C-alpha cells in the first residue's frame, strides 16, 4: 500500500513539473549562465534576488488559509457594481509629454515623440489561468491592439501576472522595438518568441540612453516569481524616464522605504510620478504601500504631479475597490499635493494648464 501511495504522489509531482515546463504562461527561469552573471549584482544573494533589508510578508499556512477564507466571503464593495466607463485615448506619437492610464499599472507614456508602454497588462485577469475568475473592472480596453502605434519600448517593473501578461506580450510583440526590463525578466520574453536582441536587462542604478531618452533602473521593495519554484529568480525595480521637456518616475510595485528619497536626491524633481497605491494589506505592507505612504513617496522623490496607479482594474486585496484612490486623494489634498484622477483611457497632457481631478468612481 505504501508503495502505491508513493507512486501516486511521485506521479502527481511529475505531472505538475511537466505541466509547468510545457505551459508557456509560467515563462522561463534564467539559465545557469545567466544566474552566474547575476552574482555581480548587489541584489543577488544566495542564488536569488533579495531586498537590501528584510521584508515581512505574513503568508504562512495559517495566514494564507485565513486570507482565502476572507476572500471567499462576499463583499459588495470589492468590485464595482457595473463595468467602469472608459474614455477614448489619444494614441498619437508627438513631441508633447502625455500619459494614458488603462487601469492597474498599465500606461502609455508619450515623451519626445517616443511611445513607451509601462507594465502593459491588457489581459482579462492577472493569473496563469485568466479564463478563471472575474475579469477587469472595465470589461475590456478603450482601444484595439491594432490601433497602437509602433511602441518604441515596453518598460517592465517585474514579472508578476498583473504586470507581465503572456497574452498581451503575444499580441503586441510585433509592434515593439525594445523591451527594457530588470535582470532575469528577459527569459520569459524569449520563451514567448521575443528576439533576444530586442531585450535589455538592467540592474538597480543602471543609467543609460535609448532613442534620445535617459533612463535609469531604480530600486523598489518587492519580490518576483510566476510559479512555485522561481521566487527571486528575477529582479524588480522602478524606473526614471527623462526627456528633453519632462522627467517621469514610475514606481512599479513597492513598499515604502528609504529608496524613494535616494531616487529623489539623485534624479528628482519629477514632473509626473506614477505611484502604486492599491492592493495593500497590513500583512504585506512591506511590499505594497498604503495610500498615505504613496503620497509620502511622491514627496520623497520630489514629484510635482502624482498619478495613482495599481488600482481600478482587479481585486487583489481585501479592501474596497475605491479605498486606494479615496485615501490617496484625501492624504494628497491635506498637504496640497497635486493629484491626477483620470478615467481609464483618458489622456493627460503633463504640461497642461489643468488636469482631471473628478471623483468619477463615486
UniProtKB/TrEMBL annotation:
Pfam families: Lactamase_B_2 (PF12706). The chain crosses the membrane at residues 6-26. SUPFAM superfamilies: Metallo-hydrolase/oxidoreductase. Residues 116-311 form the Metallo-beta-lactamase domain. Keywords: Membrane, Transmembrane, Transmembrane helix. It comes from the Bacteria. This is MBL fold metallo-hydrolase. Coiled coil: none annotated. Counteracts the endogenous Pycsar antiviral defense system. Phosphodiesterase that enables metal-dependent hydrolysis of host cyclic nucleotide Pycsar defense signals such as cCMP and cUMP. It catalyses: 3',5'-cyclic CMP + H2O = CMP + H(+); 3',5'-cyclic UMP + H2O = UMP + H(+). InterPro entries: Metallo-B-lactamas (IPR001279), NAPE-PLD (IPR024884), RibonucZ/Hydroxyglut_hydro (IPR036866).
